[in-house]
Specification:
Strands 1, 2, 3, 4, 5, 6 and 7 form a seven-stranded mixed sheet that branches. With 178 residues, this protein is of the alpha+beta class. The chain contains five helices and seven strands. It has a single domain, classed as Nuclear Transport Factor 2, Chain: A (Roll), CATH 3.10.450.50. The longest helix is centred in the N-terminal third of the chain and has 25 residues.
Length: 178
């Protein structure tokens, strides 16, 4: 018998995982604290990525510190990046890559435990210049994994793709072939 979403959520609740977007009852004090942390990370994520769409990497970095073992799966594909230790020059280049845009974030789902929070979001960048291209709208499907280190929440993983508007199976096959 296939596992249902409801049974997965029930198992997650038994394991101390709270779901925010599905409306799973908060219940305990610990679950309410996790829900507050999730809400704060959702807010910080949107504010940080909105700043990034304007090229403000300093604001982004202040809002979203990275773990030492951070991984990035870029929406442009390729080999995942594995470094949180970007040089100042690399951060400056990131700031130049994005210009004059703004971002709104749509929460799809959020899960949290005492030491890890996962956010599934849709990022909707508006009128942003990316990589020297003319300004356009960009929507991404994004998964963010935050891990608590001491009293601070740090971004451990970001996976984004540009398939928010969907593609055909033929287009997906062509991308998979390279």
């Amino acid at each position: 018998m296939p596992t249902s979403r409801r049974s997965l959520l029930a198992a997650a609740g038994a394991a101390g995982i709270t779901s925010l977007a599905t409306g799973t009852p908060a219940g305990s004090h610990e679950n309410r604290a996790i829900a507050r942390t999730i809400a704060e990370l959702v807010r910080r994520s949107e504010e940080a990525n909105d700043a990034l769409m304007r090229g403000d990497v300093d604001r982004y970095r202040a809002l979203v510190p990275l773990t030492d073992d951070f991984t990035l799966m870029s929406p442009f594909g390729g080999t995942p990046s594995r470094s949180a230790r970007l040089t100042d020059e690399e951060w400056a280049a990131i700031g130049r890559f994005f210009r004059n845009g703004m971002l709104k974030q749509e929460l799809v789902e959020a899960y949290g435990s005492a030491d890890m929070i996962v956010l599934a979001v849709m990022e909707h960048a508006r009128h942003v210049e990316v990589g020297g291209l003319p300004a356009q709208d960009w929507s991404l499907r994004v998964t963010l994994v935050y891990r608590r280190e001491g009293s601070e929440w740090r971004l451990a993983h970001r996976h984004a793709d540009s398939l928010a508007n969907g593609i055909t199976v033929e287009q997906a096959a062509a991308l998979a072939r390279g």
